[in-house]
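Morning - 4'-deoxy-4'-aminopyridoxal-5'-phosphate inputs below, output right after.
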Amino acid sequence: MNKVYNFCAGPAMLPVEVMRQAQAELLDWQGQGCSVMELSHRSKAFIQVAQQAEADLRELLAIPDNYKVLFTHGGGRGQFSAVPLNLSGKNGQADYLISGSWSSAAVDEAKRYLLPSVVAQSRWQDDRLVVPEQSQWKLNPKAAFLHYCPNETVDGVEMTNVPEVDSVPLVADMSSNILSRPVDVSRFGLIYAGAQKNIGPSGLSVVIVREDLLGRARNETPSILDYQVLADNDSMFNTPPTYAWYLAGLVFQWLKDQGGVRAMEKRNAEKAALLYGYIDSSDFYQNRIHKDFRSRMNVPFQLANPELDKAFLEQSEQAGLKALAGHRSVGGMRASLYNAMPIEGVQALVDFMMDFEKRMG
Ligand code: PMP
């Protein structure tokens, strides 16, 4: 097999070491004579897998003791519903920042349960996409929470500054940048992430929630979305996605072996600098996100001549560089550089882009 680098935004590539271990353990997990995916979620053996994964995630993100970690279903979008249902109370008010497509989708979903107030929206400024400074946001001090998305996967917009919120709980959709750098969990009321980028395969979502926010769900909240119910049952109120949980645990161990999130931060900065550096040096490619908000995880770029898009995508695929098409809502190209993408993959992409420019430019 020729070397392939997968730039998919999600489900995304997983570390090869993790895939090898899963393969080796597939049929006979730790001498059990069956696969971990065939074990009861209530068995001692699986509970150990689950607890170890949680302990490793707590260590990686230095999650304080007054936070629960939930392993659940429903992906990122499931949390678009769970957050207002759990946190807003009956006639609650909630603030949302829109920095791109996913935070906008979260607002649309929240409208089923409350009247979300949009505090600010990303906008074009001198042909660059920016997120307004917090001093320009219209914050409601009575809001039940402020929701934002620190990394917009479609748009390639990342916010490194954590909003200042006083007593309003801050809720972050970290689906596409969790574990990519250290984060001070204590600044958040709740963090959630669909697993399929930096955690593991799809089918699992992780919720990190401060304990005082539990027990506030509206009566009509489905039990499987109720954080208190999930916490009381150690995320096993119903059958959790056990195999995805196991794989997430392998990814957490891999991250620890690599030096944790600090090592990831350094590596991710190098990868992003390599790709943006080349894009900026060329007139053939462009990225239109303001430098302060460029995502290290998802790098959208356009060809100056969009008529070449099709050839670019076909030839890159042939060269073993997979899934570089931009999201269907925006077109162009996008390279996702999550933790599992090695720098060699980014170098291979830059080499291809240079060669394509030389031949077609
Ligand atoms: N939020 C973000 C930031 C995402 O990138 C995605 C999916 N790519 C979602 C939410 C939705 O996740 P899911 O498809 O797991 O519901």
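Note: The pocket of 4'-deoxy-4'-aminopyridoxal-5'-phosphate is lined by residues 10, 75-77, 102, 149, 153, 173, 175-176, 194 (CB under 6 Å).

O.
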